[in-house]
């Protein structure tokens, strides 16, 4: 998904991205813990109180994100990243208040 440009009437160009919002119920607690820890040093993850913004990286970079600080993300989490990468998104938002959908597996935590 290519960012669109908008201006605010002051001559400044602003990129606007579409970011899918996905429930954190679609990742495991272990994945959430890994992402929380990694968000302090990995520039493709932004942690906030309700969840995470994740850069949907190139599949060739999965090795980097799969082994964050020696910890492995689950196959389900990696498949989620791959799905949204293939759909053309640059970022996804995992949020605890987002609706659970019927397309992804869910995890109790």
* Overall body shape: globular
Name the poorly predicted regions.
none
N-to-C SSE string, H for helix and E for strand: EEEHEEHEEHE
Strand content: 25-35%
How far apart the termini lie comes to 32 Å
| Class of secondary structure makeup | alpha+beta
Number of strands: 8
Count of helix runs:
3
Mean pLDDT: 82
Widest sheet, order of strands: 3-8-5-4
Number of domains: 1
Rg, alpha carbons: 15 Å
**Helicity, as a percent range:** 10-25%
Q: For the report, how would you describe the main beta sheet?
A: 4 strands, mixed
Question: Care to describe what's here?
Answer:
By secondary structure, the chain is of the alpha+beta class. The chain has one domain (16-95). The protein contains three helices and eight strands. The protein has a four-stranded mixed sheet, covered by helices on one side. A two-stranded antiparallel ribbon has the order 1-2. Strand 4 and strand 5 (51-55) form a beta hairpin. The longest helix has 12 residues, at 75-86. The radius of gyration is 15 Å and the shape is globular. The mean pLDDT is 82.
Task: Please name the defining characteristics of this protein.
3 helices; 8 strands; two-stranded antiparallel sheet; alpha+beta; 4-stranded mixed β-sheet; globular; 25% helix; 109 residues
Describe the secondary structure blueprint for this structure.
Layout lengths: L3 E4 L5 E4 L4 E3 L5 H10 L6 E4 L2 E5 L6 H5 E2 L2 E2 L2 H12 L4 E5 L14
Parallel strand pairs: 3-8
Antiparallel strand pairs: 1-2, 4-5, 5-8, 6-7
């Amino acid at each position: 998904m290519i960012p669109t440009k908008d201006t605010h009437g002051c001559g400044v160009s602003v990129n606007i991205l579409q970011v899918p919002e996905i429930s954190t119920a679609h990742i495991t607690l272990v994945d959430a813990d890994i992402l929380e820890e990694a968000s302090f040093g990995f520039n493709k993850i932004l942690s906030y109180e309700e969840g995470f913004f994740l850069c949907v990286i190139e599949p060739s970079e999965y090795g980097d994100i799969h082994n964050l600080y020696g910890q492995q993300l689950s196959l389900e989490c990696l498949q989620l990243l791959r799905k949204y990468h293939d759909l053309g998104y640059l970022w996804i938002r995992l949020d605890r208040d987002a609706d659970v959908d019927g397309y992804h597996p869910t995890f109790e935590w």
